Amino acid sequence: MALIKTFSNQNFECGTDEAGRGCLAGPVTAAAVILNPDFSNLLLNDSKQLSESKRLLLKPIIECEAIAFAVSHIHEEEIDTVNILNASIKAMHASISKLTVQPSFIIVDGNKFKPYSNIPHQTIIKGDSKYLSIAAASILAKTYRDLYMEKIHEEFPMYNWKKNKGYPSKEHRAAIKKYGVTKYHRKSFRLLPEQYTLDL
Question: Domain spans of the chain?
Fold first, then answer.
C-alpha cells in the first residue's frame, strides 16, 4: 500500500518518530522530517519493515531531498530521570527545534505527544507505515541510533551492541549478568529477568 503524503495538506508538515524506546542501553533517538510535497520513493516504508541495507540506502536520499531534517539523542541519565516516554517526546521536540524550516503542522508516530510551540499536531498509531514523512523520520532515527550504538560497541564489545543495538537480546542480558552494567545502560530499566539479581 502506498504511503500517504500529508495529513494536513500543508506544505511544511513535519513527521516525527523515535527509535530505541525498548532498549536496555544507549539513547532514545528521534528524527523530524519535512518532505517536499513532490517527494516520492517506492522503497520508503516504516523502518521496521526494511532491512538495514535498505535503511542505509534511503538515509542519504531522505537527507538530500527533504526540505529539512534533524535528529536528536536523549541519553541514559536523562531517560532514567524523566522516564522513557518523556525522554522520547523530548527527543522529538529537540529534533523539531533544530529544523531549519518551521513546521506548519506536526504528525507523530504513536499516541503520545506534548504540544510543541503552539504548532498543531496529530498523533497517528502506526503512522510510520502510513505517512511518508513519519516513515522518513523513523529511518533517520533508526539509522542514526544504530550508528551511535556501533560506535560505543568499540568501547564495550562484550555486549555486542554492534549486533543487538542495545535491545534486550538473550546475549545482551547474559553479558549484563556476567560483566555488570556500563555508563550506557539505563539503570531505571529492568536489565535482567527477576530470577537474576544485579548489584547496581
Answer: 13-153
Write out the three cell numbers for 140. 533517520
What is the model's pTM? 0.94
Query: Does the annotation flag 46 for ligand binding?
Result: no
* Residue 19, C-alpha cell as written in the block: 527509535
* Per-residue model confidence as pLDDT tens digits over 43-99: 888 888 899 999 999 999 999 999 999 999 999 999 999 999 999 999 999 999 999
**61 φ, ψ (degrees, to nearest 5):** -65, -45
- CATH number for the domain formed by residue range(s) 13-153: 3.30.420.10
- What percent helix, strand, coil does the chain show, rounded to 5? 40, 20, 40
**Cβ–Cβ < 8 Å for 98, 72:** yes
Q: At 44, is the secondary structure helix, strand, or coil?
A: coil
Q: Cell 510535497 identifies what position?
A: 37
Residue 171 annotated as part of some ligand binding site: no
Residue that is written with C-alpha cell 517536499 in the block: 36
Integer Cα distance of 84 and 63 in angstroms = 27
18 is in an annotated binding site: yes
97/115 Cα distance (integer angstroms): 13
Write the Ramachandran bin of 7: left for phi over 0, alpha for psi from -120 to 50, otherwise beta: alpha
